[in-house]
Specification:
There is one protein chain. It is built from 5 helices and 9 strands; from the N terminus they run αβαββααβββαβββ. The protein is of the alpha+beta class. A hairpin with a 2-residue loop joins β5 (156-158) and β6 (161-163). α3 (85-97) packs antiparallel against α5 (186-192).
Length: 216
């Protein structure tokens, strides 16, 4: 009887040591889905227009889990080219497992398909049929083979111009604040593992939010 009491006490103490911290949230399983663009959404889709370099039939609606700035799991949406959904989902799965925080992940339609408005809202996004800033060439986003992550914390810096403008407070990349991306960190490694490249390594300009399949 004494031996039973001692064992019970040890087990009770061990259990107490493994009680989750108050307010913590167990990480829900990562979930993702990929589906064609349906007729209903196509009718209100503003990120694609006539003359875009890819047809809507080549695009896919991707839904993925992401870890928010609020410390909770969320479901986000992206549009990607059908040939590039697998590597992006794999990279985002890695970020979710590492609890890398993403502010929000909404389709650019929520911002009138304006890249400026989407960036200002710190929205992570992928497809948007638009050109490269200051160029007549199509952006990789117009092909659905690029993604921007936390654009406020990871702005584009081109000839002293910061996009979005409020991202200027994050141009000092020696800082390590929530949602920022740095050379060789877990975000960069996650995309490098699937063969994608980071705009923070560019020389003529820096695009700290940007990842693409070909480094452009």
């Amino acid at each position: 009887m004494q031996r039973f009491s001692l064992s019970f006490t040890v087990l009770a103490l061990a259990g107490a040591l493994f009680v989750p911290a108050a307010g913590s949230q167990a990480q829900a399983p990562f979930r993702s889905s990929v589906s064609p663009i349906g007729a209903a959404f196509r009718a209100q889709m503003t990120s694609w227009h006539k003359g875009c370099p890819v047809p809507v039939s080549d695009l896919r609606l991707v839904k993925v889990s992401f870890w928010g700035f609020d410390g909770r799991a969320h479901k986000g949406q992206l549009i990607l080219h059908k040939s590039y959904t697998r590597p992006v989902v794999k990279a985002l799965r890695t970020l979710y497992g590492a609890r890398f925080p993403i502010r929000r992940m909404r389709l650019v339609e929520a911002y009138g398909s304006s890249d400026d408005r989407s960036m200002a809202a710190d929205n992570s996004s992928a497809f948007n049929c638009r050109g490269v800033t200051g160029s007549s060439s199509w952006s990789e986003h117009a092909y659905g083979r690029a993604i921007d992550i936390n654009p406020l914390e990871n702005p584009e810096v081109r000839n002293g111009v910061v996009s979005p403008p409020d991202g200027r407070k994050y141009t000092n990349r020696s800082k390590w604040k929530k949602g920022m991306i740095h050379s060789g960190d877990r975000v960069v490694r996650a995309f490098e593992a699937v063969g994608w490249h980071w705009g923070g390594y560019w020389h003529s300009l820096k695009d700290y939010q940007h990842f693409s399949w070909n480094g452009q």
